[in-house]
Amino acid sequence: MSKAKAKYRALKMPVRYIINTVLVAALFLGLQLVSQTMLSTYQNQVLLLVGINIILAVSLNVATGYLGQLPLGHAGFMAVGAYTCALFTKYCTWPEPLAFAAGLALGAAMACIFGILIGIPALRLSGDYLAILTLGFGEIIRITLNNIDNVLGFSLFYGAKGLKNIPKYSDLLSVFLCVVLTCFFIHTMLKSRHGRAVLAIRDNEIAAESCGIQTTYYKVMAFSFSAAFAGLAGGLYACYIGVLDPANFDFMKSIEILVMVVLGGMGSMLGSILSATVLTILPEALRSVADYRMVLYSVVLILMMIFRPGGLLGSYDFSLSRIISKVLSHGGKEETSHE
Q1: Is the pLDDT of residue 332 over 70?
Q2: Left (φ > 0), alpha (ψ -120 to 50) or beta: where does 243 sit?
Q3: Helices marked H in 211-247 — which ranges?
């Protein structure tokens, strides 16, 4: 066995987790330092919105890039999570951290339940039919939020007036932790046998079914997994903005999230993170040319699709273990050449 291989095998899984944890902690401390010393209040709010959009893009990538489906109702799951978390935190008398954590968990759980209920009939379809069905689901959620108070007979969601006085619990720490946990759970799921089954369905559903993979089960699992994190992002959004209006979760919101996934690369988590960051900051950076910023925004997207139709990173995903392996292998070759 070469020294390079020996060194690489000596890097056990707990060590890799420790390295990743240290890097995540360093990234948070760097963001915290930049946030407190270099950014204005408005720029800090944009930074929080970047984190929320990263969760939305990465979660939708599970259903589109990894499962290979085309749902257009992601904003509907976001709305379910947002209103669930908002109502809970608004009327809950628990201490702030506990109420916020419980509200986020309830929002994610409720969105997951809706994902299962919608996924079971919807995922029997594919392509345009699935897109139309999930689009209809998103619009049903929005219209229901607008009119359900008339059915209930009392004000709960406040319809088009908007649900106000939501506690603004979202801050840099909570959003950053949710982004890290989202990426960790999705990455872990994809590296498990369940994730390999999902990828097999994407590559060839008929072949996967012939190998004994329960395609319906895994499609619904991935779809509900994606919906749960959309609900988590919705809860963060509700406690970030303080006011919820059903118009914020319309069809264009779903398209906006889908564009982030396509621009970053279908099946690339790092691509979704980069594109969500760029597409959140770019419209804000172009506010100085407000009359033309949407035109410039559209031109950037068109040029991207012409020159990089596979997205920013295609299907590439960052792997720290792979980089460490290459570094150790390079070091091993150098040592071998000196012997």
Answers
A1: no
A2: beta
A3: 215-241
> Residue 153: left if φ>0, alpha if ψ -120 to 50, beta else—which one?
left
Closest C-alpha to 262, from 72, 106, 38: 72
Give the residue from 270, 277, 281 showing the smallest Cα distance to 314.
270
First-to-final CA distance of the chain: 15
State the angle between helix axes of 13-37 and 41-61 in degrees (0 to 180), rounded to the nearest 10. Answer: 150
d(C-alpha 315, C-alpha 102), whole Å = 35
Residues 6+ apart with CB under 8 A from 66: 190, 195, 198, 199, 202, 222, 267
The rounded distance, in Å, linking the Cα atoms of 321 and 15 is: 10
- Mind listing the pLDDT tens digit for each residue in 245-302? 999 999 999 999 998 998 888 889 999 999 999 889 988 887 777 677 667 777 877 8
Q: Are 159 and 145 in contact (CB under 8 A)?
A: yes
CA 183 – CA 186 distance, rounded (Å): 5
Q: For the segment 102-120, what is each residue's pLDDT rounded down to a tens digit? A: 999 999 999 999 999 999 9
DSSP 40: -
Question: Within the chain, how many helices (H) and strands (E) appear?
Answer: 14, 0
Cα–Cα distances in Å, from 287 out to 9, 52, 291? 51, 21, 8
